[in-house]
Amino acid sequence: MAKVFFISDHHFGHKAIIDFESRPFENAEDMNETMIQKWNAVVGKEDKVFHLGDFSFLNRDRTKEIVSRLNGCKHLILGNHDRGRTRSWWLDVGFDEVSEHPIIYKDFFFLSHEPMYMNRHMPYVNVHGHIHGQKYEGIHYFNVCVEHWDYTPLTFEQIRDAVVPSEEQA
What we know:
This protein has about 170 residues and is α/β, with parallel strands linked by helices. The protein has one domain: Metallo-dependent phosphatases (Purple Acid Phosphatase, chain A, domain 2), CATH 3.60.21.10. The chain is built from 5 helices and 9 strands; from the N terminus they run E-H-H-E-H-E-H-E-E-E-E-E-E-H. The protein has a 5-stranded mixed sheet. A hairpin with a 3-residue loop joins strand 5 and strand 6. This is Phosphoesterase. It comes from Paenibacillus lycopersici.
């Protein structure tokens, strides 16, 4: 059965992110290759991945080559660094779906690039990226930036189990 995964902020090809976020890579090429391997180690060909933005700093051909090497059906929610390129550009490089706005998944998970305002009365958990190594406190936020998860996509179940008490999952 196909699984659903979530991840954000790969910044493929962005050499400066290695220093900005203290990523453990020698250079951008080492970073790219490691992140591709970690993605494909958990994501199967039939799985779906929601990438919550800031995917690549590379040109069209290099980005297309990376997307083609990644397993799964890939849905991109545009991040702040992705918005300089059109929705059709991202579809052309190989994403199966591209969202310009946040989406609600399974009537409970609010998927966005940047953390969204969530008050204690809102029924959602905001699964987001953008803030890299930082973390918002509270039960309404779940950061899927690569820095928190060893550059490996998380399954829907991993996120659900972390934010929903087990008696509510039944």
